[in-house]
Amino acid sequence: MIDFTPLLKNPFMLLFGAAAQLGIFVTIVLAAGLGFEIKEAASIGIIGAADGPTSIYVANRFAPNLLGAISVAAYSYMALVPIIQPPVIRLLTTKKERLIRMDYHSGDVPQIVKIIFPIAVTIIAGIFVPAALALIGFLMFGNLIRESGVLEGLSKTAQNELGNLVTILLGLTIASKMQGELFLVPQTLLILALGLVAFIFDTAGGVLFAKLLNVFKKEKINPMIGACGISAFPMSARVIHQMGLKEDPFNFLLMPAVSVNVGGQIGSVIAGGLILALLA
C-alpha cells in the first residue's frame, strides 16, 4: 500500500534503488566462496534487499532449509538500520558532503499518472523479468487499490486489519520452519554475519553512487540519501533525515530521502526477480 508520489515527483531517484542493491550480489559471491551452494548463496544474498517478503519468497524457492535463519536475519537487520547505516555513511562521506542541501519538487502528480504507474511497471516487469511478476505485482496492486479512489473500504482493510493478520500468519509460518536441528547450528551465525555484510554494502553502494553522480552533476546530491535505496521503508529515510538535522538543523532531507527509499522498494523486488530468473 506504499505511496509512490515522492518517487513520481523525482523519478531520477529510482537509480539509487538499483545502486543500493550492491550488497545482494557482493554477499552472493561471498556466500558461494564460503561453501554454500549457488542457490543457497542467492537466498542469503537477498537479505540485502532489506525486504522481508522478498527474502522469504526467494529462500522458500531456493533454500527452504535456510528459511528460518534468512528470515530472522532479514527482519532483524531491517530493524537495526538506525545502528548499521550511520557509521558506514560517516565513514564514506565528508562533513562538507553531509551539509549539502537539496531542493524538493513540491508540485502535484496528476491522479492519472498515479494510476497508470503501477500498471505500467507491472507490465514492463512481466515482459523483461517474468520471474519478478509475483513480487512486483503484489507491490503494485496494493498501490493501485490505494490510488484508484473507488476501493476505499478495501484499501483501509488492506492497510490495517488484513496487513496485521498477514503479519501474524507470516510469523507463525516462519516459526514452523525454525526447528532446532535446522536453526540452532553454526551455519545460522554465518548467515547472520553475511546478512550484515549485505546491509553494509547496500549502504555503501548507494552512498558511493551519489558521490559518483556529483562528479558530473552541477546541482549536487547529498550522498547520505543514497543509503536510502534499500527497501527498509520508511525507517532508512528517517535515519538519513535525522543525520542531516544533526549536521545542520535547517537541512531537511526527509522528502528526497523518501523518494530514494520508495525507489528502493521497487529495486529490491526487481533484484529478487532477477535472481529467480537467473537461477530457476
Describe the structure.
- The protein is mainly alpha-helical and 280 residues long.
- The protein has one domain.
- It contains 16 helices and no strands.
- It is globular, with a radius of gyration of 19 Å.
- The protein starts with a helix and ends with a helix.
What keyword list fits this structure?
globular, single chain, 72% helix, mainly alpha, 280 residues
Helix-strand category: mainly alpha
Q: Spans of 5+ residues with little confidence (pLDDT < 50)?
A: none
The tally of domains stands at: 1
Radius of gyration: 19 Å
Order of helices and strands: HHHHHHHHHHHHHHHH
Mean pLDDT reading: 88
Q: Judging from the principal axes of the Cα atoms, what is the shape?
A: globular
